[in-house]
Every structure is written in structure tokens, then in C-alpha cells.
Amino acid sequence: MSRQVIHIIGISDDPSKELSGEAMDLIAGGRVFSGGKRHHELVARLLPEDSEWIEIRVPLNDVFTEYSLHPAIIVFASGDPLFYGFASTVMREMPDAEVHVYPYFNSLQMLAHRLLLPYQDMRSVSLTGRLWKGLDTALIQGEKLIGVLTDSSKTPDSIARRMLQYGYDNYEVSVGESLGNGISERVRTMTLADTVGMNFRYPNCVILRQTSSRQIPFGIPDSSFALLEGRTRMITKMPVRLAVLSMLDLGSRNSFWDIGFCTGSVSIEAKLRFPHLDITAFEKRPQGMELMTANSIRFGTPGITAVEGDFMELSLDSYPRPDAVFIGGHGGLLAEMIGVIDKVLMPGGVIVFNSVSEQSQALFAEGVSAVGRKITGCIRVAVDDHNPIEIMKAE
Question: pLDDT, tens digit, for every residue of 17-70?
């Protein structure tokens, strides 16, 4: 049985743009075509009279079921089908199909062209139907040029508001509206502050250009954090914090849980060093939520999920399963907490705990042994006149 053949043709939103001769030959010889409603409006005049059209719509399962009934399909997509486009979806859902792609410029390329902006070093991020994580990561990493695909909710206005909230005012923004749509397209460059409250024609995309660098300390001084009732002892000290992050080996992890975060210092330091992480932080004191918000804004770390409540009483199913866990507080239930963590920890995951006494060291050792894990590392740290802390790692 021969493989199903899918041709995916990237097109412009400008109906006056001519397709390549290769694409025109494919269309002339085709019978089954597909695309969104807007794509059909753009190419209907080019389709053979007896052709069939499969509209791309949700749920996509129904679309691929229709695709499976035909030996060959010609699909129309906007811009470059391989740039956050439909081609990757087709290859994922139909791995046995023979796929051919005929790209056009994507919207970020067109915006760079309009701005006469060399874009070989641009970091591209899609917020189209996605969370903020891609943009947050690029900002924390200090990317100098960021291209952003927007949607109807993550607009240039909402992007500017989020950036300003977390102190990333060191960028100017260029917005391209209806790019490739002839006389209706528009390009504007402005400050983030000027972008707030403005309405932009959709579809649109954004290029952010850094105007100055933002300094990120390697180890935030303890005194820089907003503290719980001003108590300097209620924070994981900076040298201890950095040692904890080293023990967690977060560069190779995906999801980190910080249990008993208090000021949020460990989560914030982790986010600055490893912005790719999904971080979920738990704290039972209501003041902790206020501190996490204040400190996240102060140090520019959007994207940390802070959860209020007693960890031992929470339903954990809705949070990304961790492959690294730091226990900063246990409420006298250390062994029980380790048992809960063990049930959700990903294979190869690690648990790190700061012990301040021989009793808590013994409890941690007993707890990890009870779930079939073992202690694989210990570091003893003493800061100023504080008691030494034993940082213990279990795998």
C-alpha cells in the first residue's frame, strides 16, 4: 500500500500575491484541498471545479479522520507551515504520511523585513494558544531581540503590561498588523509604556529590541528580599541557597517543587538561574503569597506558580510532576511528606533537604530509606554566626 501524500503550501494574506509555478501545478492536478476558512477565501478561485475542501477546525481529530480517507491532500497554511505551523501537527498526527512543504515568509520575517532589521539572532517565541513561559524565559535570559507571535488574548498591550510589571522596561516594541495583506498592513515602533492601552488590528506580531541590559546578581543578597515580618532568620541564606540549587542539579530538570517557600528566595533564585523550569512553590502562611508576589516583581521572575495551603492536605494532581524537590518546611511531618513526594516524583528525581539538627538528619534518612531511596550527597554550610546547616540530597 502506497503512503498517503500531504502537500502543505504556505500562502500570504494578500490575495494579489502569486503562488510559485510548482504550487500552481500541484493545485491544477489536485482534487482534495484543505485549510482554514480564511485560506479558502484566498485560494478558492484557483481550485479545480470538481475539487473537495476539508476545513481545518477544532476538534482536529475530526479533520485528520477525513484526511485518512484520501490518498493525497493539498493543504494551505499561513506563512511558513514549519514555523509554529500546521506542518508539525500533520507530521505528529500522521507519522506515516509523506509530507512536502512549500513555505512562504512567516509574519516575524515580514516584520523584520519592514523594519530593515537583521534577524539572524532573533529569539522566536509563540504565545498563540500557549502560556507565557516562552516569553518569560527569553526575558530572564536577557535576549537582545525577541520575536513574539500573539493571539487574541496575549496581545501587544498585555505583553507590555506583563513586561512592565516585572521590570522589563529595557525594550522597545515594534508591532506589525495584518502583515502581507497589502494596503491594510501597518507597522509601528514605540515604547512599552506607549503600547499599554493601545488596540491593534489582528492578526499581529511583535518584535522586542533591548535598549539596555538588565543586571542579574549571581546570588541575591538576603537583605534585598522582602522578608516575613522583617525577620532575617526566616530566609534560606544566600550561600545555602546556591548550594541547594547545585545539589538539585536544576539545569537538567524540567519541573521543580519548593515546599515551604516563605519569602520565595529559593524559587526566585532558581528561576533566574534556570528560567526553563516549571516551578511550583507551596506555603501554608498567607503572608507567603504576598512575599512571593512582591519578590517575583522585585527580581523579575514571572511564571512561578505559588500555592497557598498545607502541602500535606492539598490535591497535587493539577501541578506538573516534579523531577526535583526542595523541602524548606515540613511542619513536623517530614517522613510523611517524603512519602507523599515519593508518589509524584518523576523517575530519576531528586529530593534536597536542609537539616539544622542531628534529629532532623536522622528523620530525613529514615524517611528516604522507607521509600526505597538513599542519601547520595551532603554539604555542611555555616553562615556568619548561624548554626551549621546540613544540605542533604536523596535519590
Answer: 889 999 999 999 999 999 999 999 999 999 999 999 999 999 999 999 999 999
CA distance 353 to 34: 55
| 231 and 204 fall within a common domain | no
Q: CB under 8 Å to 11, separation ≥6 — which residues?
A: 17, 19, 39, 42, 43, 76, 77, 78, 79, 104
Q: What is the DSSP string of 198-211?
A: ----SSEEEEEEES
Amino acid symbol at 113 = H
Residue 374 lies in a domain: yes
Look up residue 43 and give its amino acid: V
Q: Which amino acid is residue 137, in one-letter code?
A: T
CA gap 256, 322 in Å, rounded:
5
- pLDDT 10s digits, 349-363: 999 999 888 898 999
Rg of the chain on CA atoms, in Å: 26
Domain identity same for 185 and 78: no
Q: Same structural domain for residues 9 and 116? A: no
- In a shared domain, residues 137 and 194: yes
Q: Where in the sequence is the domain holding 13, given as residue range(s)?
A: 5-104
- Amino acid at site 26: L
Q: Is 171 helix (H, G, I), strand (E, B) or coil?
A: strand
